[in-house]
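Reagents: none. Just compute today. Undecaprenyl-diphosphatase.
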Amino acid sequence: MDIVFILKAIIIGIVEGITEFIPVSSTGHMILVGWAIGFNGEFAKMFEVVIQLGAIMAVVVLYWGKIKDSIIEFFTFIGTKGEKGKTGFRFGINIITASIPMGIVGLIFYSEIKSKFTPEAVIAGFIAGGLLLLAVEKIHANRKFRVKSIDSITSIQAFKVGLLQILAVWPGMSRSASTIMGGWIAGLSTPIAAEFSFFIAIPAMIGTTGKDLFEFNYSIMSTTLWISLILGFVVSFIVALIVMKKFIDYLKRKPMKIFAIYRIIAGLLLGILVFTGVIKLTV
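Predicted 3D structure written out:
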């Protein structure tokens, strides 16, 4: 059993848990940290997908009450022909509506999207995402009369968020950043935009995870790899659970500007290091 390899897996799990739900690109950070510690190859690609599912499970746990009640109300609404469960039904429809654009793009262009995961694309995604965050927040986030309840979101607003989520197919752009910007444009307050982005991450990540896991060659798995996979999943879940709570609290008090500035600086530094040959990234 390779203890050093397992420790590297735990480090990547921590990185995923920290970065999945804040607007800085978990994919970009896992690629960078993976290069720094020598964690790469076919297993690493599958590992990154699985630990993202661990982070998504943190959403299910943190918001289990809301998810459970909404599922019950959704089917109650159907069973009572609309007499009961309107809130949960509307919430469910909003999640479905917001997921449609990414679902269509994923089904049609999944293989092509994966082929575009290059270091240059990740670097450009870091910088472009940071600039977009600054611009969209300045224009939209501080407007009055923002939606301040997740149950007050309309289907049109949900669809707008879903359209912006398509930006997340650009490696380094960040699914969280894309959906939060979509929320701003649609008229949601920042904390509600972030929370809604958590919920619509569930179908998006489960879909991509399922496809990648189905295609993976499990014949290469060893005891070390299985232990690494399990620990990475658990660590990303625990860290994401903590970070989500802190992130929402932060957004109630502070703007997103700091994340945008970080992205731009990190992207520029990474670009300089890559294009001068100081580091060589593989995606």
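The chain has eleven helices and no strands.
Action item: order primers for follow-up constructs.
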